[in-house]
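Notes to self after the Tuesday call (sharing in case useful).
The group wants a holo model before anyone commits to mutagenesis around the pocket. I volunteered. Ligand is zinc ion. Logging inputs and output together so the record is complete.
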Amino acid sequence: MNEYALIRDILEKSSYTVAMCGTDMMKESGMPSLRAPEIAYQVEKEYGYSPEEIFSSVFYTNRTEVFFDYYRKYMLMPPLKPSEGFYALAELEKRGKLQCTIANNVHNLPGRAGCRKILNLHGTIYDNECPRCGKAYSMEYVRDSRKVPLCGQCMAAIRPKVLLFGEQVDNQMMTNAVSEVAKAEVLLLLGTSINSGLCDGYVQYFQGSTMIIINAAEHFMDEKADIVIREEVKTALPKIVWQDGKRPENTEDRDMTGKDGTEG
Ligand SMILES: [Zn+2]
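Result:
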């Protein structure tokens, strides 16, 4: 039995499977890391500040126009398309073989590929709210507004409900993620390593039988996993989910708005 068939078998028998989607799955979907040196350099040159400085609550509050200029350019454009790895996850969930997906990308890539039970630890760009009256606004409203997107009712600057640099993951969200990992019989770490920022603090609660890592990059801590596949998720996971390794052509995006992907 090859590795893919072995994992397929493990997932088939698992009573509760949880997947964690790391930053490499985002890169596979076309999103460069904001911490990548070339991006940081470009941002510094353009604004005179680092991405960490601009994408912060200090800038949202005090330099709101700069914040939104950056936000539109680097977070909302260009629109990302979920990689094949996310579609494979959605298929697993549809078959009842995946109970929860935990992600820290703000583009709700799992939701846009069709996953339903998702914990977006860092929130999503699709969720925007007036901090004063609580009115909800769409991503398109924020994207298409000039300069600062304002609430139509009270003229306050709309707050994208995404985690900014220096902010902590919402407590309830963290508790939910810990409880999902603790419940899992099988844990899939996808495009991430055990000691990454995403997994740090969660993996320690895993008490199931099998931890599987699919990640092209190598990390020595990963030896703690039961199975490690050194390959990109977008090629490996489809081979596990579909015998021929390919998503059937009629599997379309179930939800392109990205809404209702998070659990309440
Ligand atoms: Zn308002």
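Two things stood out.
The first helix runs from residue 3 to 13.
The domain at 3-30+82-122+168-241 is CATH 3.40.50.1220 (Rossmann fold).
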